[in-house]
Specification:
The structure is a homodimer of 336-residue chains.
Chain A (H helix, E strand, L loop, with lengths): L1 E8 L3 H12 L1 H6 L2 E10 L2 E4 L6 H5 L15 H7 L4 E4 L11 H10 L3 E4 L2 H17 L4 E2 L10 H8 L5 E7 L2 H13 L3 H10 L8 H4 L2 H14 L10 E2 L7 H9 L2 E9 L3 E8 L10 E8 L4 E7 L3 H17 L8
Helix pairs in contact in A: 1-13, 4-5, 5-6, 6-11, 8-9
Chain lengths: 336, 336
């Protein structure tokens, strides 16, 4: 049985999901020979540290650790530096301008040779190659499946299942909110503003929807894919971005009459995010909040994978898969 | 650099594809630390054995080894038994009634502790659990991604990327010939017989199409999935099979008017193969010769993967991925 001591930094929606998933899957993990022990959880109000493992139920019962659960006022950086652990789960809120606080957390962890698994796009958008180098120099692993495409196993698909292939390009739908809005506009004939309002009422779009509908989220993901899968050295500003806010019901109807849908498509290494025509018969022609990504390869043709773009438990399960893969695979994925 | 000595048994379309892929990918494999050495190739006319590795170009230039290439009259069984190797690539023609000659080849290889990678459905349909046990007893690995769904990385997706999930069900389109025929019937209004003829002219359907259109191929794949992913003990006859030969243009038109397609769908653990209505918006609503499989999970929701169902290089690339994964991952996939 391999014991893996985990410091979790961040305890919002994904953090709660991760605690819940580890709780549910303890037996399955033991069957794989892995004993995951969450030795600390930190949020913006403090830290709970238990050398023999934090009881997830304790933390799942409260909104912030300050509510009688924290037993230390350590911040994330201190918890990573001072608490003995093998791996850091970094799930603090994302910021794609400066990457903080996640970027500092990851640098600290990797510098100490601790593995990092994350759903936090910001640090990878800002400093992917620097973080990868830092991991390499310190013999640590950095895994980030959950940052791109939610539950779609895109990164590991490319690294593992399609190993042997040259990846020629990746294009797809990487934002469930945009896909929902476009699907409703096309199917119901709603104007953009009405479909957006519906999405907001359902909790599919944020009160401030700009991050999704202007293509920012998709462009952040393209930045990560360009640097990771294609070994490029790309900044967010290198992506050419157009969102969905100017799409009209009429253009969708015109497209439909000719057998096409309109989707917000991100593409690498083209480095574009823009509304594009997608043939109705294409594997990318998925509706609702689904994400879909087509991977063009030299040997295997085009492989498409489709899945939910978000969700607490779903994102957490991608984090868990990354952890299992770190401890059961040789490191062949650092080819860039 | 890890040297992997490979005996290849079978040298038809997939066998040629494998030789070609290994030739093309030698540098990439070395970057991964793997030196694949094909020490022997056997077909029904004989064997070429070169201790330091067979030059793929030699074999790729001839239709049968008897054409001046073979340097031994060893059959497959002898080659596996007598030639020192680490891994056997078994790509002889498939027979789902008795599994031979592949079944004997695999038993011999696994008994000797040699890993087996195959695209040959027959032996796995006939004796999956026996072969898995034999592998376990002798510390060998048995990998068979290429038997199910062509280039779609379905088995490894379940074993690797979705690790942590319970797999609740798999349903999908597993036969490109049927999908092509149904797509043409729906889109062009062709009757079944005409669409079949067109598929035969294009080389998409065999002269004797029964294996595909009667659902036999799909049912064989469901047998393998039931035994491998779901740990069942299923024989081919346990699958309830209906093919596509009785589907009419009218029924397709009726379905279309209500927003549905008709597809030949295989399902496990339901153990059924039958034409089913698929909503046009579903990720399974793919056309042409594509395959698609939806994997229903407890944590990650439903993940769908789509890819080409067949092809020489495509199938060979699945074999190559299996080989790489054997030598770069811990064995966590034998959970059944």
């Amino acid at each position: 049985m391999k014991e893996i001591r985990i410091s979790q930094v961040g305890c919002g929606i994904v953090g709660h999901g991760f605690l819940e998933v580890v709780r549910r899957k303890r037996d399955m993990l033991r069957d794989l020979g892995l004993d995951l022990k969450i030795v600390s959880v930190t949020d913006h109000t403090g830290t709970i540290y238990e050398k023999n493992g934090v009881d997830p139920k304790k933390v799942l019962g409260v909104k912030t650790l300050a509510e009688g659960v924290a037993n230390s006022d350590m911040k994330g950086l201190e918890a990573i530096e001072e608490i003995e652990s093998d791996l850091v789960v970094e799930v603090t809120p994302t910021n794609i301008d400066h990457g903080q606080p996640g970027l500092g957390h990851m640098e600290m962890a990797l510098t100490q040779g601790k593995n990092v698994v994350t759903s936090n796009k910001g640090p990878l958008v800002v400093a992917f190659n620097r973080l990868k180098d830092l991991a390499g120099e310190n013999g640590a692993r950095l895994k980030y499946e959950a940052t791109v495409g939610g539950t779609m196993p895109l990164i590991s698909l490319v690294e593992r299942n399609l190993v042997g292939n040259n990846i020629l390009g990746i294009k797809g739908i990487f934002n469930g909110t945009c896909n929902y809005i476009l699907t409703r506009m096309m199917e119901e004939g709603y104007p953009y503003g009405y479909a957006l309002m519906e999405a907001q009422e359902l909790g599919i779009a944020e009160a401030d929807p700009a991050y999704d509908v202007e293509g920012i989220d998709t462009a952040a993901k393209m930045t990560i894919l360009a640097n990771s899968v294609f070994g490029m050295n790309v900044k967010y500003d290198d992506i050419d971005v157009t969102g969905i806010t100017d799409i009209t019901t009429e253009s969708l109807a015109l497209a439909r009459d000719r057998g096409y849908l309109i989707k917000l498509i991100g593409e690498v290494p083209a480095l574009t995010v823009k509304p594009m025509l997608v043939p109705r018969r294409s594997p990318l022609a998925v509706g609702g909040t689904l994400n879909a990504a087509s991977i063009e390869t030299d040997l295997s043709g085009t492989i498409t994978v489709t899945g939910l773009g978000a969700g607490s438990i779903e994102t957490a399960s991608a984090i868990l898969s990354d952890i299992v893969n770190i401890y059961t695979t040789r490191n062949i994925d650092d080819r860039s």
